[in-house]
């Protein structure tokens, strides 16, 4: 097990290094001069030259990369050219917001998705399945922005149960935090819940018709033991895979959700950085996001091997 | 300029939108936090380095200037005690500063602080104020509260420049302590002082007990929140999560007027929006203008025909629901110094004349034009309207929506035929003209060059007689319009929506929300 994990960690580090090069070069391939974007209305040749010199934009790209990676390895992600605030601080403030949002959305997706998926599979052909399928279709089809605005109109303006925007850390005021996070979590989690529901249903249908379930039934196990202990446990491997793959979408979906609910998370930070060509912030954000992706993939792989030891053994041989 | 005070019902949308409403003088109770939604996250909170329009609104809460503008667009003293005294040759400017002002860090405002700030604005690497303070040769304190400025040449726009960020005075103690990191610890004289900033989320200011007029300040705290999307800004206003919404678009204003809990402030802006045409920018900004071999660049008659094909009133009606003002010159008619043409004086659409001009020019029709537009919904619609109108006169306009930073790079480099060119506006006409229309001007992306215009710009800067100045800018505007290198289309209005329980707000022609007197209505 330890050897397997070590191999995966090594692979992840190499990927991260390659990602850093791609990110660095990719951002610089974007059209639009950051000095111009920064100077905006007040651009004069002298001001542009001073901005380029201050942020090292006039250096060779290799030198710029060396400086960036050297500082990054020491935990220094540079200073935002737009706000003058340290990028690490901005990320440190934005990360918990997005993580909380993603965690709540994931929780919602897992509880609703798996629950509805199991019900749909067990109640195949009955109204419960139709309802679950219809809800899943809705969850997949409704545009995030529209759903967000509708929820705000309904639950923050017409019936003001939740807040329309803003973020308060959970530690500062848990009730206010949830009041502000529930709607964004629903918006972000609804699509994933639909995907999880469909996967769970399909996997459960496979499992329920498998020989081992028939055997379990023949042995006289209760319905709950058959569905929960045998069919669901085996179906979860597929569901966990899908969840792992969809986590990426969760983070990217957060970009739109954070715009609607004005949450100061990663998405908002990224959008602002793209439009102002704030290289330092953009690099920092993409690097940390890549790290998160790679780390989540690592976790999913390890989770696989825990759920199904055959995968671990296969990988270790 | 009319001034409507009070809190009239906003249900009568026609009268409210038609008129101007810049102040609200209802009595205000002490205490409370006001959350202001901005349409973007400000950049650096350092008056020397700051570049965004939205940042000026935050500065309005915490950094007073030597001069300010009033509701009538006139320049009035703020940290200075009176308008500056200018020598006969215009090269020496003297003024006194308040004796009772203290910076938010507790240090005293004096002439030395003013000199330190002005020289920093002029000299700091990357200063966004360097160009406007370039004529400043030296600054020195002639007494504890008296300042003497020596200029390289007479520079009439100086007072207006000092009524913007170049006139903001920073605490020398804070500058010494933080240097370039002043942006994270700004300290000025103002009703509120900087408390914290969370990038992309909020900037918090708290009431400054050191402020010379602290008794007149009612709010405990002002929070500025960037909310770029107009409909999200409006939803937050309606839910009460924010109390003031800045830079609201016409569609959202119309929608806000249906909500009895909201009120509207509006003031005419000093800026403009238009279509810039590349008439000579072949080697990039600041380079010598060259020749471009296209009908639009080569022949002024083709550009005039394009101008005549456009109906400014229709753009205002279709795209902005009639809530902005058609424009046909660089200077706003609301400008207190040398006001420009009124919307009613703008040329009307004349397709027959446009066709005739194209025929005279002997160009093959349709004349193809690629118009770069911002990726905003407004400019997408303007582009479509212009496309349809120009077609009737013999033009084939292709739209190329281009994201802001890319557009700046391409248009500055001269890689375009026509693009949407706008400016937020300055108090002095020179601020709306010189950089754009002077040969090799810092923002002359059009490659426009006219010796007569250059001479008029230079005269306008040195002429102290207001009547003469007005004549100069009138002639200048006419000459520039005749060249049709920059076709002015409309002027935005500064629409600010606030909760009805908020009183004491002020929104003047510079578009800034002044919160000094604001608070919750008694």
Automatic annotation (TrEMBL), chain A:
GO terms for cellular component: plasma membrane. It is found in: Cell membrane. The keyword Cell membrane applies. It is a multi-pass membrane protein. Keywords: Cell membrane, Membrane, Transmembrane, Transmembrane helix, Transport. The chain crosses the membrane at residues 101-122, 134-158, 178-197, 236-262, 282-307. InterPro entries: BPD_transp_1_N (IPR045621), MetI-like (IPR000515), MetI-like_sf (IPR035906). GO terms for molecular function: dipeptide transmembrane transporter activity. Belongs to the binding-protein-dependent transport system permease family. PANTHER family: DIPEPTIDE TRANSPORT SYSTEM PERMEASE PROTEIN DPPB-RELATED. This is ABC transporter permease. It comes from Streptomyces tabacisoli.
TrEMBL record, chain B:
It comes from Streptomyces tabacisoli. Keywords: Signal. Residues 1-30 are annotated as: Disordered. SUPFAM superfamilies: Periplasmic binding protein-like II. PANTHER family: D,D-DIPEPTIDE-BINDING PERIPLASMIC PROTEIN DDPA-RELATED, PERIPLASMIC BINDING COMPONENT OF ABC TRANSPORTER. This is ABC transporter substrate-binding protein. The keyword Translocase does not apply. Residues 1-15 have a biased composition (Polar residues). InterPro entries: Peptide/Ni-bd (IPR030678), SBP_5 (IPR039424), SBP_5_dom (IPR000914). GO terms for molecular function: peptide transmembrane transporter activity. GO terms for biological process: peptide transport. The keyword Signal applies. GO terms for cellular component: ATP-binding cassette (ABC) transporter complex; periplasmic space. Pfam families: SBP_bac_5. Residues 18-29 have a biased composition (Basic and acidic residues). Residues 75-441 form the Solute-binding protein family domain. It comes from the Bacteria.
């Amino acid at each position: 097990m330890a050897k397997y994990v070590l191999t995966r960690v090594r692979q992840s580090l190499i990927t991260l290094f390659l990602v850093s090069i791609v990110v660095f070069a990719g951002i610089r391939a974007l059209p639009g001069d950051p000095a111009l974007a920064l100077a905006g209305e007040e651009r004069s040749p002298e001001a542009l030259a001073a901005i380029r010199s201050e942020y090292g934009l006039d250096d060779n790209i290799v030198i710029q990369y060396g400086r960036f990676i050297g500082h990054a390895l020491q935990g220094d992600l540079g200073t935002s050219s737009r706000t003058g605030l340290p990028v690490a601080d901005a990320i440190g403030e934005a990360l918990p917001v997005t993580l909380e949002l993603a965690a709540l959305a994931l929780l919602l997706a897992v509880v609703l998705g798996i629950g509805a998926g199991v019900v749909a599979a067990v109640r195949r052909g009955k109204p419960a399945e139709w309802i679950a399928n219809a809800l899943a279709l809705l969850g997949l089809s409704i545009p995030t922005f529209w759903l967000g605005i509708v929820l705000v109109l309904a639950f923050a303006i017409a019936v003001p149960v939740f807040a329309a925007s803003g973020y308060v850390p959970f530690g500062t005021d848990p009730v206010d935090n949830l009041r502000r996070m529930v709607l964004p979590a629903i918006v972000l989690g609804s699509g994933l819940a639909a995907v999880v529901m469909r996967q769970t249903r399909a996997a459960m249908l496979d499992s329920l018709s498998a020989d081992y379930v028939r055997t379990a039934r023949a042995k006289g196990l209760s319905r709950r033991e058959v569905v929960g202990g045998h069919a669901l446990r085996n179906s979860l491997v597929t569901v966990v895979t899908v969840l792992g793959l969809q986590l990426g979408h969760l983070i990217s979906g957060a970009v739109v959700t954070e715009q609607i609910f004005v949450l100061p998370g990663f998405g908002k930070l990224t959008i602002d950085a793209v439009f102002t060509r704030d290289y330092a912030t953009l690099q920092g954000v993409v690097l940390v996001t890549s790290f998160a992706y790679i780390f989540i993939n690592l976790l999913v792989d390890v989770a696989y091997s825990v759920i199904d030891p055959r995968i671990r053994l296969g990988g270790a041989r | 300029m009319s001034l409507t005070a009070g809190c009239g019902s906003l249900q009568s949308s026609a009268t409210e939108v038609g008129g101007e409403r810049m102040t609200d003088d209802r009595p205000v109770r002490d205490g409370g936090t006001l959350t202001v939604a901005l349409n973007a996250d400000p950049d650096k909170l350092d008056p020397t380095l700051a570049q965004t329009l939205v940042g000026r609104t935050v500065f309005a809460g915490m950094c007073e200037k030597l001069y300010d503008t009033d509701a009538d667009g006139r320049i009035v003293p703020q940290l200075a005690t009176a308008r500056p005294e200018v020598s006969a040759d215009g090269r020496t400017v003297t003024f006194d500063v308040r004796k009772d002002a203290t910076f938010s860090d507790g240090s005293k405002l004096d002439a030395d602080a003013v000199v330190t700030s002005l020289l920093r604005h002029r000299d700091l690497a990357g200063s966004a104020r360097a160009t406007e303070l370039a004529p400043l040769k030296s600054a020195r304190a002639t007494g504890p509260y008296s300042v003497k400025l020596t200029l390289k040449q007479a520079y009439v726009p100086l007072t207006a420049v000092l009524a913007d960020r170049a006139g903001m005075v920073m605490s020398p103690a804070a500058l010494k302590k933080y240097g370039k990191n002043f942006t994270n610890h700004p300290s000025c004289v103002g009703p509120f002082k900087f408390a914290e900033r969370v990038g992309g989320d909020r900037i918090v200011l708290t009431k400054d007990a050191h402020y010379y007029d602290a008794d007149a300040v009612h709010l405990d705290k002002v929070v500025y929140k960037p909310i770029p999307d107009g409909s999200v800004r409006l939803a937050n206003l309606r839910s009460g999560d924010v109390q003031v919404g800045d830079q609201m678009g016409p569609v959202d204003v119309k929608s806000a007027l249906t909500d009895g809990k909201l009120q509207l402030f509006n003031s005419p802006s000093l800026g403009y929006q238009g279509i810039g045409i590349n008439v000579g920018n072949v080697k990039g900004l600041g380079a010598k203008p060259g020749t471009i071999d296209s009908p639009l660049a080569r022949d002024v008659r083709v550009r005039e025909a394009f101008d005549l094909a456009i109906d400014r009133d229709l753009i205002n009606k279709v795209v902005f629901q009639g809530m902005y003002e058609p424009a046909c010159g660089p200077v706003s008619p609301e400008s207190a110094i040398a006001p420009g043409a009124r919307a009613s004086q703008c040329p009307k659409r004349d397709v027959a004349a446009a066709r005739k001009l194209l025929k005279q020019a002997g160009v093959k029709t349709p004349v193809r034009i690629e118009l770069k537009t911002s990726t905003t919904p407004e400019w997408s619609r303007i582009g479509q309207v212009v496309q349809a109108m120009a077609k009737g006169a013999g033009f084939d306009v292709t739209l190329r929506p281009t994201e802001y930073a890319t557009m700046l790079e391409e248009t500055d480099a001269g890689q375009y035929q026509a693009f949407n060119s706008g400016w937020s506006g300055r108090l002095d006409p020179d601020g709306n003209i010189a950089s754009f229309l002077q040969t090799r001007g810092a923002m002359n992306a059009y490659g426009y060059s006219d010796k007569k215009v250059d001479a008029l710009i230079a005269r306008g800067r040195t002429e102290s007689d207001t009547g003469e100045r007005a004549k100069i800018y009138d002639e200048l505007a006419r000459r520039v319009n005749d060249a049709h290198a920059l076709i002015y289309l409309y002027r935005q209005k500064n629409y600010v929506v606030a909760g009805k329980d908020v009183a004491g707000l002020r929104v003047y022609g510079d578009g800034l929300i002044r919160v000094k007197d604001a608070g919750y209505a008694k």
